[in-house]
Design goal:
single chain, three-stranded antiparallel β-sheet, binds zinc ion
């Protein structure tokens, strides 16, 4: 799980998409870094991002920051 203090610079640095998991229906998705403005020097906290589950339309999500491609793949594999 992501640390509460992680910012968009951290996401950019990880070279991986951000993982979003819905706490209501367990739906999971990977969001490309470009879509959330993750770039070098962007120190906005990931907590300020507003995500809405594409399945149940709720806002209660859990964010995951991946250290490598394998953990991003595992995140989605656990869901399917
Ligand atoms: Zn949901």
């Amino acid at each position: 799980m992501i640390s509460p203090s992680a910012d968009l610079h951290d996401v950019w640095k990880s070279h991986q998409p951000l993982g979003v998991a819905c706490k209501h229906c367990q739906h999971r998705a990977l969001v490309a870094r470009e879509r959330i403005g993750a770039r070098q020097g962007n120190l906005h906290c990931v907590d300020t991002l507003k995500f809405r589950c594409t399945k149940c339309k709720r806002h209660i999500v859990e964010l995951h920051l991946f250290p490598d491609h394998r953990s991003a793949k595992r995140f989605m594999a656990e869901y399917r």
